[in-house]
């Protein structure tokens, strides 16, 4: 176990060193982070300038959903996506073979191998939005809601991670698939809206087929105190199910790689 | 100990013919060819041996190495390395072997090799004391000192290869799979790496399997060679034995002060090459002393050289011939 | 040797053919690009929900449907990923190879992406039928002048989009973070081009900015032609804007390219 943690720490250190190599990055990343926050919030502001509620969600509640969206996106862009890009590059150059030769599980080695440390700005922005949104409400959140909100944030991140692993597994079969990231990004983009806002068919898809709702809507409801226990369990359960499924697909992908590569 | 029994590995490659019609057709229907990269290969290698894999490009050498190191599942047949089944990739197995691929790099590109080494230490869970000792030994043998803290991308090809070797050996593996480790390197660096591999083999009784296109690598390092062509094993045995069996004649080269009549020349041996006054003859081994005597004595030849036939020639003749010959017994 | 333009022209059919072959060869990747441009369907879901009870600032649900289906069609016909492709080629070294060929890469890339339009139309066409069937008179323009002008408008939109992305791709000669800029660009594009929502719905100062920025003329312009009733003055300004921005973007793209290649050749890639 300590071996894994040591590896993780080393990988973080390596990425941080790379990131801080260029001091201009700090400024550029800060500005980009602000720009993205503005772009993310604007559609929501437009919608609520003409409506008080949409599908039962008022502005503060919708802001919480979008804050979760920003937070999960920060983790995605902070480590999951960069690691996936690194993996695809390794597969293409053949260096992935060396990953398989190490006595550590390949999925663990590639999962958090690269970081974009500046995405921590985006995370800070998300927290700021949550605080603002919760401040608009009548009462502060209960301690239980905070805990549940945090736990479901973790579940949401795991669900997003699982989706990305499925994508990584696909890139073993169809080598030139590194633009799949963009597809996932487009799909994930729907998570910024509460899932109830979409027509019922979409809602079903986004809850059970491509469960982006697990990543933002349900954690938001937890924080807002409107998620009942069965739904909370179902959300966590769904996240774990996705994780297990992605692990299975990954193993199949590795099996295929080690049968077909030359 | 490495054991392969009837090892077979087939690949499916999809055919992509040129032209617009074929391209559109491949949108809905793809056809595949089966490539037999390794076809029923068997051998046993004892601990501490140095074995060279020879064969033309695409013969199946790299595929065999990959199966032995666990990177590929064999299609059929058995394989065991140091008591493990390679493709299960158990941690115990992976800690005992190493694979170095001359064309692929495990060093992190933008960072100094030292960072990759630290990563490997964490991954292989090597105790610090042993690590430091191994690193010191490798640094000295490979002269890595000034290279360790330069980003990998700033190193020359030879320097990078040395660092790659070190990265591969820091966990003290007892079986080394080396796939074209000297490719693209200059002559001095090739010799340095050869010396290093021999030294490591002797110090740690490590088994070495080497594939290379450079005959010098194989001749210098490997007493035993396995020749693979089109996935089939066509020779397994002592290198010098192979040369003696396939072509027992020596090559005698010399310079004559004056021209010699063709039939006189024919009595000495078969003419292979002529460059001005420098001639190369093919002489059966038992006749060599007599021929030398005549050349040095009455013919007053200078710059005399007696050599074994080039390994390339022998191999080239073997490749493509095996289809008609019966498979040889391992010697 | 013949002059460069005539050589390029003669090579064009082959370039297009190769473009088609590439599209087919990398069909999985191509499919993914197509799927990423179906975002308007998501927005359609959202905005029809918002406008379900009552129109949102003049946009009723059917009007939103027409708008986003039109946006989807235009996006399919004008989108491309040349910035990403150029960034990858600089990284992989394939760009160096490309520079050695006698065809200017701008045309080579353009031909390659233009060749994909027939395939993208396969997606756009059924959507077009759905649009016509579901919206009819109420939300679509019936002015023949507007509809005729749709063709040059689409062509200009395609060229402007291509020029802009080519310019961003050329940034890969200067920065390793060219793709980060491309992503930010796409964020701006989604907002200011009408991809996320009709430009009419943007708040005051942002709407004003949107009317002048180039993004509008890459996507919203043909969509407006399709879905709105425009008097001749506004029509002229719209198309004039497209012409002006397309020309400007082409100039910027080629200038950036030239500077980038010079740097590439001096630095050695």
Describe this protein's structure.
The complex is a heterotrimer of chains A (262), B (331) and C (269). Chain A has one domain (2-260). Chain A has 11 helices and 2 strands. Chain A has helices spanning 2-19, 24-50, 59-93, 96-100, 106-111, 120-135, 143-173, 180-188, 200-209, 217-224, 229-260, and strands spanning 53-54, 57-58. A two-stranded antiparallel ribbon of chain A has the order 1-2. In chain A, α2 crosses α3 (59-93) and α7 (143-173) runs antiparallel to α10. The mean pLDDT of chain A is 87. Chain B has 331 residues and is an alpha/beta fold. Chain B folds into 2 domains: 2-243, Rossmann fold (3-Layer(aba) Sandwich), CATH 3.40.50; 248-308, Alpha-Beta Plaits, CATH 3.30.70. Chain B is 36% helix and 28% strand. In chain B, the strands form 3 sheets. In chain B, strands 5-6-7-3-8-9 form a 6-stranded mixed beta sheet, sandwiched between helices. In chain B, strands 11-12-10-13 form a 4-stranded antiparallel beta sheet, with helices on one face. In chain B, β6, α7 (187-204) and β7 form a beta-alpha-beta unit. Chain B is globular and about 70 Å long. The model of chain C has no long low-confidence stretch (mean pLDDT 86). Chain C has helices spanning 4-25, 27-36, 39-50, 61-78, 82-92, 94-99, 105-114, 117-135, 144-170, 178-192, 204-212, 220-227, 232-267. Helix content of chain C is 75%, strand content 0%. Chain C has one domain (4-267). The two termini of chain C are 29 Å apart. Chain C is mostly helical. Chain C is built from 13 helices and no strands. Chains in contact: A-B, A-C, B-C. The A-C interface holds A 28, 32, 35-36, 39, 42-43, 45-47, 49-51, 54-55, 174, 176-177, 179-180, 182-183, 185-186, 189-190, 193, 197-199, 202 and C 26, 28-29, 32-33, 35-36, 38-39, 42, 45-46, 48-50, 56-57, 81, 84, 177, 180, 184, 187-188, 190-191, 196-197, 201-203, 206.
């Amino acid at each position: 176990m300590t071996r894994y943690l040591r590896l993780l720490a080393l990988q973080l250190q390596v990425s941080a060193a790379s990131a801080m190599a260029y001091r201009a990055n700090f400024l550029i990343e800060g500005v980009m982070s602000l720009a993205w926050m503005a772009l993310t919030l604007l559609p929501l502001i437009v919608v609520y300038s003409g409506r008080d509620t949409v599908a039962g969600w008022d502005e503060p509640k919708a802001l919480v959903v979008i804050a979760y969206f920003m937070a999960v996106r920060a983790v995605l862009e902070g480590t999951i996506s960069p690691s996936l890009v690194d993996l695809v590059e390794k597969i293409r150059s053949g260096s992935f073979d060396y990953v398989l030769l190490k006595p550590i599980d390949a999925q663990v080695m590639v999962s958090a191998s690269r970081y974009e440390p500046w995405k921590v700005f985006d995370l800070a922005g998300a927290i700021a939005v949550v605080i603002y949104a919760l401040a608009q409400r009548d009462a502060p959140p209960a301690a239980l809601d905070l805990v549940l909100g945090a736990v479901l944030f973790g579940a949401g991140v795991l669900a997003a991670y699982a989706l990305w692993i499925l994508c990584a597994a696909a890139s073993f079969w169809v080598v030139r698939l590194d633009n799949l990231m963009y597809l996932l990004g487009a799909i994930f983009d729907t998570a910024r809206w509460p899932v109830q806002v979409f027509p019922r068919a979409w809602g079903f898809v986004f809850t059970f087929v491509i469960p982006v709702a697990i990543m933002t809507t349900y954690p938001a409801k937890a924080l807002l105190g409107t998620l009942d226990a069965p739904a909370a369990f179902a959300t966590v359960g769904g996240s774990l199910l996705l994780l297990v499924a992605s692990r299975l697909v990954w193993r199949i992908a590795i099996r295929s790689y080690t049968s077909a590569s030359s | 100990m490495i054991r392969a029994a009837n090892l077979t590995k087939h690949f499916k490659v999809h055919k992509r013919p040129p032209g617009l019609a074929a391209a559109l057709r491949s949108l809905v229907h793809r056809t595949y060819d089966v490539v037999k990269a390794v076809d029923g290969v068997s051998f046993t290698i004892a601990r501490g041996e140095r074995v060279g894999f020879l064969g033309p490009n695409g013969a199946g050498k790299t595929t065999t190495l990959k199966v032995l190191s666990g990177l590929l599942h064999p299609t059929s047949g058995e394989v065991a390395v140091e008591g493990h089944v390679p493709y299960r990739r158990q941690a115990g197995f992976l800690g005992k072997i190493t694979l170095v691929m001359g064309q692929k790099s495990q060093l992190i590109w933008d960072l100094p090799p030292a960072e990759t080494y630290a990563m490997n230490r964490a991954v292989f869970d090597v105790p610090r004391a042993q690590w430091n000792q191994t690193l010191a030994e490798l640094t000295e043998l490979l002269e890595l000192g000034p290279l360790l803290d330069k980003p990998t991308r700033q190193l020359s090809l030879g320097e990078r290869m040395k660092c790659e070797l070190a990265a591969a050996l820091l966990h003290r593996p007892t079986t080394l799979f080396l796939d074209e480790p000297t490719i693209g390197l200059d002559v001095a660096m090739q010799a340095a790496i050869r010396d290093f591999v021999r030294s490591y083999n002797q110090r740690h009784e490590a088994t070495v399997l080497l594939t290379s296109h450079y005959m010098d690598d194989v001749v210098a390092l490997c007493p035993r060679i396995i020749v693979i062509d089109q996935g089939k094993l066509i020779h397994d045995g002592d290198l010098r034995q192979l040369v003696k069996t396939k072509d027992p004649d020596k090559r005698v080269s010399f310079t004559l002060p004056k021209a010699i009549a063709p039939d006189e020349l024919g009595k000495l041996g078969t003419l292979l090459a002529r460059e001005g006054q420098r001639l190369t003859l093919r002489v059966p081994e038992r006749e060599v002393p007599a021929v030398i005597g005549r050349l040095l004595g009455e013919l007053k030849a200078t710059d005399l050289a007696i050599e074994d036939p080039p390994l390339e020639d022998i191999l080239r003749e073997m490749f493509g011939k095996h289809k008609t010959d019966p498979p040889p017994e391992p010697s | 040797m013949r002059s460069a333009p005539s050589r390029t022209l003669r090579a064009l059919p082959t370039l297009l053919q190769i473009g088609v072959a590439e599209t087919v060869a990398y069909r999985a990747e191509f499919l993914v690009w197509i799927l990423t441009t179906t975002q308007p369907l998501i927005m359609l879901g959202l905005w029809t929900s918002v406008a379900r009870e009552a129109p949102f600032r003049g946009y009723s649900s059917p009007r939103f449907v027409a708008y986003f289906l039109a946006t989807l069609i235009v996006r399919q016909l004008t989108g491309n990923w040349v910035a990403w492709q150029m960034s990858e080629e600089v990284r992989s070294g394939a760009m160096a190879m490309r520079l050695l060929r006698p065809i200017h890469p701008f045309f080579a890339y353009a031909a390659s992406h233009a060749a994909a339009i027939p395939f993208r139309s396969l997606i756009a066409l059924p959507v077009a039928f759905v649009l016509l069937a579901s919206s009819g008179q109420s939300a679509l323009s019936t002015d023949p002048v507007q509809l005729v002008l749709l063709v040059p408008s689409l062509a200009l939109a395609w060229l402007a989009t291509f020029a802009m992305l080519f310019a961003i791709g050329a940034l890969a000669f200067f920065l390793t973070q060219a793709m980060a800029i491309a992503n930010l660009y796409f964020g701006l594009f989604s907002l200011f081009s009408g991809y996320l929502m009709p430009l009419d719905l943007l708040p005051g100062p942002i709407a004003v900015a949107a009317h002048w920025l180039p993004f509008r003329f890459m996507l919203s312009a043909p969509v407006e032609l399709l879905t709105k009733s425009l008097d001749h003055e506004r029509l002229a300004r719209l198309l004039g804007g497209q012409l002006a921005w397309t020309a400007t973007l082409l100039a910027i793209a080629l200038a950036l390219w030239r500077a980038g290649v010079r740097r590439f050749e001096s630095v050695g890639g």
